[in-house]
Amino acid sequence: MSGKYCISVDLEGVACVVGAYGQGLAEGTKGYAYAVKQGTREAASAAKALFDSGADEVLIWDCHGSGVNLDYDKFDPRCRFALGAGSRIRFPGVDESFDGVLFIGYHAYDTPKATLAHAYSSSTFVSHKINGKEIGELQLDAAIAGKRGVKTIFVSSDNVCVEQAKETFPWAKTVVTKDCLAWNNCISRHPQTVCDDIYNSVKSAVANINDMKPYVIKTPFELSVTYKRIEYAQGCSLRNPDNTPFETVDAYTRKGILADPEHYFQF
């Protein structure tokens, strides 16, 4: 079975990773080096499953932090890589010709006990809501791919993030890497067992590609963003379709309308 796929790789949701207390999983923090190693292994397992299923093209999108994290030498040489930061484009290089997107190592949105839960920046935001419902970067990224007609086919992460994924795209195949206990605490499965399950589940996702769907948010939609600091909310640059700024709901929250999920990154 031929096809084109994109694997989007974050790091917080991979096996045996909990970050550093009060710091998260930034470069240089305790646990970051191992997160890079395991994130590479999990994504490489997914890529191998895609190629073994007949894929023609696999694009790896390194999207944690600065976008320069993974050990690219460890991947199948047929892979291509989207990496770095600064373009404000989500899913760079992905268009309607792609058959599916896969999410490796993503994390839950802010939820009690969820390991390393946040939306885009744990130091900046408290929450994001679309039409009043809490969402995270997993949901918004999937909606951007879905707007281009690309199906969400696979998610691997901790148990809380996987439950959120099942609620949003119940057709996708999933693998749980660890069970959450607190923001920096979990009970993890063995890293190799997780990689083996990712390989098998991705093969199953491709075999059932006709049952997969793009995740689409009906537009326009209401977006509410709550920040961790008052000055961050005051500096919000998001704008409505008529170019007016988002309204101030309270000292920490701004709310408005977006005509396209990609517009979130254009301000």
Give the structure's gist in a few sentences.
By secondary structure, this protein is α/β, with parallel strands linked by helices. It contains 5 helices and 13 strands. The strands form 3 sheets. The chain has a 6-stranded parallel sheet with strand order 3-2-1-4-7-8, with helices on both faces. It has a 5-stranded antiparallel sheet with strand order 6-5-11-13-12.
What does this structure look like?
- The chain starts with a strand and ends in a 9-residue tail after the last strand.
- Helix 1 (32-52) runs parallel beside helix 4 (191-207).
- It has helices at 32-52, 137-147, 159-168, 191-207, 230-234, and strands at residues 4-9, 57-62, 80-82, 100-104, 125-130, 133-135, 151-157, 173-176, 178-182, 185-188, 221-227, 247-250, 253-258.
- It has 267 residues and is of the alpha/beta class.
- The strands form 3 sheets. The protein has a 6-stranded parallel sheet with strand order 3-2-1-4-7-8, sandwiched between helices. A 5-stranded antiparallel sheet has the order 6-5-11-13-12. Strands 9-10 form a two-stranded antiparallel sheet.
- The chain has 2 domains: 4-107 and 137-211, Rossmann fold (3-Layer(aba) Sandwich); 221-265, no CATH class.
